[in-house]
Structure formats: C-alpha cells, structure tokens
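[stage:ingest] chain + small molecule (zinc ion)
[stage:ingest] validated
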Amino acid sequence: MKSFIQALPKVELHLHIEGTLEPELMFELARRNKVSIPYQTIEDVHEAYQFHNLQSFLDIYYQGANVLITEQDFFDLTWAYLLRCQKDNVLHSEIFFDPQTHTDRGIEFDTVVNGIHRALTQGQDQLGISSQLILCFLRHLDEESAIKTLQQAALHKNKIVAVGLDSSEAGNPPQKFQKVFQQALDYGFLTVAHAGEEGPASNISDTLELLKTSRIDHGVRCSDDEILVAKLIKDRTPLTICPLSNIKLKVFENMEQHNLVELLRKGICVTINSDDPAYFGGYMTDNFLAIDHAHDVTRDEFGEFTFNAIEASFISTQEKDRLYAITRDFLDTYPN
Ligand code: ADE
Ligand code: ZN
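[stage:predict] done
[stage:export] tokens:
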C-alpha cells in the first residue's frame, strides 16, 4: 500500500504556506535577514514543537513567521513547498496565506502576495503543478482589520480565488466576521473557513449559514450533531481534514480514534490535507500513510479522497475533468 499511496495523484485544499516553513529555511532566513529566533539548533526546534492544543501551536507558529521579510523569502518558502508537492504527486494545491501576520509587523501586503504568486506561476510552468491562493483572516483580530485586509486583497483579485478564516477558534465564532465575508462575496471571492476543529459543531452550521462557505476546513466536530452530518451528506459539503494536525493538536487522542474514515463511509465529501506540515510532521503522502497505518482503508477509498478533493476544488470543470481522468487512469492501471 505504501508505494500505491506515494504514487496516488493528490489534490491539497488545506495548506497554510507559513506552516511549510521548515527549520532549515527558518535558520537560513533568520541569518539572511538578521532576525533573532529562540532556537540554536534543529533539536531545539523539535523540542519546542510539542503542542497541547491549537493555541500552544499558534504561539510558536506566528513567532516562526517573523523571519519572512522580503518578496524573495515568500518566493523561497512557496517554491520549497511546491518541490515537496512534486515528490508527493500533488497535482493541484489551494494554498492559504495569512497577510495580517505580516502586515502587522510592517511587511507590505504586495511583498507577501507577489512573492508567493511568482513561485506559484513558476510551479505551473516548470513543475506542471496548478494552484490557487486563499487569503485567510486571523480570527483573533477584529473585523475592522479583516475589512482593511480585504480592501488590499481586492487590488490583487486576479491572484486570489477565495477568503478564509483561521487562527484561534475558541472565543472567535463565525458571527464575528459576517460583515467582511459578505463584502468578500460581493467582490466576487469564494469563501471557506476553519470550523469545528476545536470549536463546537454549531460553529460549522453557523459558518455555512452566515459566511456562505463552499467548504469547511477541518469540521471533524460535526460528529457531535447528527442533523448536521445528514446535511453535510445531502449537500456534499466538503471537509478539508488534516489527520496529523489533529493528532499533534490533540483534537483526537490517537489516529485510531480519528473519525475521517467513518465520515467518508457515511457519504461526506472528506478530503485529506497537511495543514502545517513543517510543524505537524508530514506532507500529503505522510498524512495518507498515517491513515493507512491506523485504519483499514481500501485503494478505492484512497482514490475517493482524491476524487472528493477534485470535486471540492475551485478549478474549472474542464480542469476537474482532466484531473479525474488522470486519477481514474492511475487506479485502473496501478499493478495489484
Ligand atoms: N493556522 C494555521 N494552522 C491552523 C489551524 N490548524 N487551525 C487554525 N488556524 C491555523
Ligand atoms: Zn488550517
């Protein structure tokens, strides 16, 4: 199964570009930009990456992002991720970025978006990997700040397909961002949002209703509400689930207890993603392998995760058909 999973065509829909900052690049950028970081060695970093919940991770994660200063830094970060995509047979990726993490420390919005976008264009040209960009508002900040960020995003409408919502879910429900999401929809952006990661199932229902999102990021807490589960099945609402993240942040005690296979078999449009791979110990293939290790999943079911991700993606019907055909051909021809 390992070589099958490695070779399986994949589509990633839940990936924070700041969460792909590997310790080696963090050290290099710290040196290049003369920014001090609280680690001397790679071992120090690994020791610090022991999290007990979402907030304990976010504190470390925002600190890591301080080394990102120039457009070239954002390019290098994104290019390194795309090279990992190539290794994992990721054909298409929809990538989150958190502009407020950078603009709040004096980095221009344009610096961030232009560096990332230049790497994505090169990824399409040189690696054949397609991508989309999704701007996430930080939910621990106020809506006013999100609105200012949206206005900057509107100037880069051609580079950004959707807006999302991430950071601390507890105490920052979807209601807080209803106005800015409506404005984003009016500008013509699609919407997604993290919900039901640590927060209750009601955050998922409220997100769908109030923020009119096309997908739910994480959403694993839907299991607490049978009516919600029935609605997700009926509407084919995609969940972008991140197995290794959920274990690292103690959303589930262990991978055996993770509910994503059960949700898939109930008929929910479940997808597998890596979230913040540099912090959680693995990219796409590692997440698939972790599920394979803990659950009895068939090849066809692994294929279903890719079909679901294609269905849930923000690409054209024509492009979806191309990816469906590649995946179907792979499943039909991969040796037993
Ligand atoms: N930002 C980066 N990763 C996140 C996660 N898993 N949940 C919320 N915000 C995040
Ligand atoms: Zn996330």
